[in-house]
Structures are given as C-alpha cells and as structure tokens.
Design goal:
There is one protein chain. With 273 residues, the protein is α+β, with helices and mostly antiparallel strands. The protein has eight helices and eight strands; from the N terminus they run αββββαβααβαββααα. The longest helix has 24 residues. 41% of the residues are buried.
C-alpha cells in the first residue's frame, strides 16, 4: 500500500487534472481517500485544486473531525458528503466531487443521464440519477445522495455538480471523466436532432458483459432484472429505480394521472350545474 505522503501526491495530481480539464473553477471541488476505517485524507477548503502540494492535504476521522492539518488549512466544507459515502459504501476508497460543465448543466436543468447512447457509458455507469438539491456544507446533501449510494457509483447534484466514488482514487476520477463525457455526447447529439438510443436487447447484452467482467462497484445491471423482461428499468425511470425492480417514475406518473382525472371530474361537474 502507498504511504500517506504518496497518496497526498496522488490527490494533488488528480486535483491538477480536474482543474486543467475545466471540471472546477477557482476553489471548487473536493477529493478524499480512505486510509483505514478511521483515517481519511481530504483536500482543504478555500484553495484551488490545481495548485495544491502534499502539505495542503488534511486528515480527518470517520466523523469528519480534524486529525491533522497544517497551519492555514481546514478540511473541505463538503466533508460530510464524503463521509456519508464511506459510511454507506464500505467498498469505496475514494470520493471525487467536481463541477464539470456538461454534467453540471444537466444537473441544473434537472435532466438525469439515463439515455443508453454509447456502450462504454452503459457498461461503466448505466445511469446517473440526480439527487435533490441540498445546501452545500450541510447534512442536506448527504441525506439527498443516500438513497442512490447502494445502486450507483455516480450521482448528479441538483443545481450543484457531480459526485463519483470507487475502490481507488484513479477509478473515482475516471468515473468523473466518464460522467462528463457521457453528458457532453448527450448534449451534442441532442443538438443534431436527438440521439439514437441502444435498444433493450443491446443494453442487456452490455449489462451481461459487465457482469462477466466482474467489475467492482454498484451498477444498474445489478438491480434491473426487469430489463430482460421488458419492464420499467433505470433507463425508463430517469434513474429512479427503487432497487426492487419497481419504478418510482411509474408511481409518480400514476399519481399525476389520478390528480388530473380528479381535477377534470370536478371541472365537468361545475360545467354541468
């Protein structure tokens, strides 16, 4: 296993990458790595992630309390969000939060990344849902992402950005790259008249490939048995599968339909009086 100093250098390198790729501006974004069950390294608040050196990196415990930080540095204000991921996903060793332009634009527009348009995105991510808006640095964001953690390795944060997590720092970063590339392709293909989506059978074959590869992490391939039977799945539900094969969107659509029917009935009653 790499030494703490080596991991700090790796965090700085990933910070440079997300800054140079335009995934963050100014002092945005944060990165963390799990050392053991009670020690975590994280980026500090209020500094550009593109210009960090190892002495910038802070160490916190499982509750986000400072274990070590050099003078002038404090842990990221979003550390609660990172700690929630580690608490609910023991397999995760690293978390990356950034504001990539295309992915964040979808998060601002309230559009989850669910259209199956490219094999690599289907295998690596499946779908990327949107967690409800929460005030930064509060428990609102950890609470909002919680319901997605067992089913996805990437989440858009409404009006905020993107969050990815994996079994290593480089894999968590690569997932962020994949989310942004997926969003960029989806945006550009919509400008060209709309993407031609992969069909149900093609998606299921890609899911089966992922299962055969034994790739780590959580993925809709593990929670969407309905896909094989032509029933609602994460691509139909805007990333809102319940995890038991049922679809939250279906429930929402049903409730909306009932409401419209009731309003129509009352209007007709008034017109017939």
């Amino acid at each position: 296993m790499a030494s703490e100093y080596e991991i700090k250098k790796q965090i700085c390198d990933i910070g440079k990458r997300i800054y140079n790729r335009g995934m963050v501006a100014a002092n945005d974004g944060n990165i963390s790595v799990k050392i053991n069950d009670n020690e975590y390294l994280c980026t500090p608040t209020g500094v550009s992630k593109g210009f960090m050196t190892p002495d910038y990196i802070c160490k916190v415990d499982a509750d986000g309390r400072v274990l070590q930080a050099n003078d002038g540095f404090r842990p990221s204000s979003e550390i609660k969000m990172h700690m929630r991921v580690y608490k609910e996903r023991p397999d995760v060793r690293s978390v990356v939060h950034a504001h990539p332009v295309y992915a964040t634009s979808f998060a601002i527009a309230g559009i989850p990344l669910t259209q199956p348009i490219m094999p690599e995105a289907v295998i690596a991510l499946g779908c990327v849902p949107i967690a409800a808006y929460g005030t930064p640095s509060t428990k609102e964001i950890p609470d909002a992402i919680s319901k997605y953690l067992q089913f996805y390795d990437a989440v858009l944060l409404e009006n905020h950005g993107a969050l990815t997590y994996s079994d290593s720092l480089i894999n968590a970063y690569h997932k962020m790259e994949s989310v942004e590339f997926y969003a960029q392709l989806l945006f550009k293909s919509r400008q060209l008249g709309g993407p031609k989506e992969l069909n149900q059978q093609q998606v299921e074959r890609l899911y089966e490939i992922r299962r055969q590869f034994g790739l780590p992490g959580k993925h809709p391939a593990d929670l969407c048995p309905n896909l094989q039977d032509g029933l609602p799945n994460c691509h139909d539900c805007d990333g809102n599968c319940n995890g038991d094969g049922s679809c939250k969107k279906e429930e929402s659509d049903s409730s909306t339909s009932d409401l419209i029917s009731e309003i129509t009935r009352r209007v007709m009653e008034q017109l017939n009086k």
